[in-house]
Amino acid sequence: xxxxxxxxxxxxxxxxxxxxxxxxxxxxxxxxxxxxxxxxxxxxxxxxxxxxxxxxxxxxxxxxxxxxxxxxxxxxxxxxxxxxxxxxxxxxxxxxxxxxxxxxxxxxxxxxxxxxxxxxxxxxxxxxxxxxxxxxxxxxxxxx
Length: 144
Fold this sequence. Notes:
Layout: H1 2-25, E1 35-42, E2 52-58, E3 62-68, E4 73-79, E5 87-94, E6 97-105, H2 108-112, E7 118-124, E8 127-131, E9 138-141
Parallel strand pairs: 1-7
Antiparallel strand pairs: 1-4, 2-3, 2-5, 5-6, 7-8, 8-9
């Protein structure tokens, strides 16, 4: 009987230490994960005849595809997992151009999306812009 109590105490201590360790690694996020809003906006100035086609997914969830007209957006909420591996990617197509990119990826976006946890992408003719307030946009990369 003593062995099983000792084993139970050791196991309980190991779980407690694991929880403390995870909390120390990512103090800004509770153990159950944080929620972020991710959006992709069609920022083309004149694409009335050709929509921006977008398809987004993660390894666990297929968000499907959309055809975005000028200024339309595609938004969704992301809840991070405790392992810090949450990852959503999108594939964009416009005319002959095609590009896949990481729309949300821990740890890159947990800090750059800001305190309001808003991660916005503006897709334009010359590339992809990121913002955490939809006012100040910074170009992240080009179509090529």
